[in-house]
Automatic annotation (TrEMBL):
The keyword Transmembrane helix applies. The chain crosses the membrane at residues 177-197, 286-304, 332-349, 361-384. It is a multi-pass membrane protein. The lineage of its organism: Eukaryota, Fungi, Dikarya, Ascomycota, Saccharomycotina. Keywords: Electron transport, FAD, Flavoprotein, Glycoprotein, Heme, Ion transport, Iron, Membrane, Metal-binding, NADP, Oxidoreductase, Signal, Transmembrane, Transmembrane helix, Transport. PANTHER family: FERRIC REDUCTASE TRANSMEMBRANE COMPONENT 3-RELATED, FERRIC/CUPRIC REDUCTASE TRANSMEMBRANE COMPONENT. PROSITE patterns: FAD_FR. InterPro entries: FAD-bd_8, FAD-bd_FR_type, Fe3_Rdtase_TM_dom, Fe_red_NAD-bd_6, Ferric/Cupric_Reductase, FNR_nucleotide-bd. This is Ferric-chelate reductase. Belongs to the ferric reductase (FRE) family. Its cofactor is FAD. The keyword NADP applies. GO terms for cellular component: plasma membrane.
Amino acid sequence: MVRGICAAFLRTSILLLLGATPVFGKYNKRDTWERNAVIGCAFQLSSKVPWDYQNDACTEFYCSVCSYDAAFGSLAVCVYDSLNSMGNNEGNKTFDKSWVHVQNMCIKFNGDFGNLSLDYYHEQLDLSYTIVRQNYSLENSPKVDFPVELNPEITLNLVNAYHKYFHNMDDSNFFVYFYYIYLFLIFFLASIGNYLTHINKELSIRKYTQWYRMQAYFTKCLWKGYHTSYYNFMGKFFIGLFPSKLETSIVTNYAVLNGILLAICYKYDSTNSLFSSKPQQVLRLLADRSGILAFGNLPIIFLFGTRNNILMWLTGFSLSTFIALHKWIGRIMIINSLIHSVSYLAYSILTGSFDFWNMELYYKCGIAAIFLLIIMFFLSLGYMRNHYYEIFLYTHIALAIGFMMACWKHVENLGWKNWLIISVSLWIFERFARIVCLLLNGGPLSSRLQLFENHQNTDDILIRVTIKKGNTTMTPKPGQFFFVYFMHPMIFWQSHPFTVIEEGDGDSIIIVLKPKHGASRVLYNSLVKAGGTLDMKLALEGPYGHSAPIKHADHVVLLAAGTGIPGPLYHAMSASLPLSDSPTNSIDLNIIVRNINILNAFRKELFYLHDRNVNIKIFLTRYKANKRANSIATERSSLVSKHFDIDQLKSLAKVYFTRPDLRSILKENIEPHMKTAIVTCGAPEFVDSLRDIISTEISSNPSSLIDYYEEFQRW
């Protein structure tokens, strides 16, 4: 029910994006001969003819042309002659179309144009044609109070210059669609692959392709085994996450496409009628192209930064993948924006028009927008996300709002507001879908928090949250996660993602979290004060993510480390069967933890797997060191719930007191001509090392079908 209604909002958002794009794109077409003729003629008549007209109430550029009869008559004659000279006025059809552009230009200076008709335009043409002064010299001319004819050659050159200028602008508008076409192809192919995986049809494709080579390439980490682990670039402050090879491939091709679109198909005016020199033309056209392309990226960036993204469901890509695309495409947009700003700055300096204090509002808003964008970039670097996530999140939203407002004022009278409208609409729909998900999950739900604490090692502290499902709460699937809002006075507005486990009776949902900083530390302090158990209201938003289709595999290998146990453990609970049913499929659950204390939070779920077709292996990497420490009494021993002892654990699983050889575990479970599903979750270093190992195994076993599913997400 929740997924169905939320998906309806998501599809509406996508339709809004895809449906509005061609409509607004058509609206923004600028290169028409009638428009070029009107602007070319109006520009000359306003800048070169000393009209005998003065109006203190109207001092803007086109005031005389739109308000003075002699000037307006000259405009009608100029447009008519220019269109006829170019052979673009068969049956006066193009001249009649030019009336719309005359009205749009003049109505802001002369409100009467809203009530005038095309007949008035023709009347002024006929009247002025009989009295127009041909070949009238404007040099040393006194004030002009009669219609004049402009130099035909100069006029045609200027009209043609506007044609090339606006043609470049239309090309820029059209090129934005290539972003969407490229991403559509990527997601279309990914959706087909995801669908075939879920219906167990990959083998039919593999007969004709090197599918395993593609899998191995996309699975491997991009650089030195780093993907979910932060990498230091230049000291502790400059840290970041490397994209996966799949993400890198998508972003690299996107960046190449962006570079091509910035570089191709410019038309230059050899006469320099509109600009004083070729460098000015180049700067202005590049500024326009880069600015339009930057705006075209905005809906993509907004969509990829949302939790409610239907593309996740279609493609099987994780939220962290879309966040990575959000970040990198955002950086490409910043580069385009910087090119736009620097090009316009250089153009303003060359033309002598750069004077900040006398600039128009749209120019100042453009400067404000680029500064906000740069600040947003630095405050979203890995250091801020990793150490001060809440500060990053709220400043990111505030700066994004300020940036969009500045952009709106920047282009308010120029066009391209469509990209802003689409982006904001997506943001509103997504936030509305979140609220709907919260309400359909039952709103505030009852929960019980339990503290599992090892006083000799604070790294082993865990909080188990048992959530009583509401009547309409969505039943999650293994590997899915909720964003949880704890109704605590200090953190009720915050939401954090947690992988969930549904209890065997289906009445409750379990999450297990490790206290670190921020919200989880607040919960820990409250639990200590309450004696280790605390009832609290919370709300669930979700579920998000997809569930790995492991049911089609001949063999399932689940690898979990530390607090990454919930996802693989829930997969084991969901996919396993009682031994009495003689299942043909086998499931291997490998759990790697420092010591036995961490398993206490999952005691009930581990006992659920007893006498089921799950081979459980538990690796205790520091058990001996903690065995002596645990014998020491602690002053808060009452906080610790029932503990596993080693004998109980051995009755459930094979227990090893060492670090596992991950490569050996995988080799033992991969067999020729068999389909193996591997699901992993754990610390970043653990997941990254498995990525590279599994990539190698996929390459080394072309006769086996190996599906790799990574449930650890980081952004």
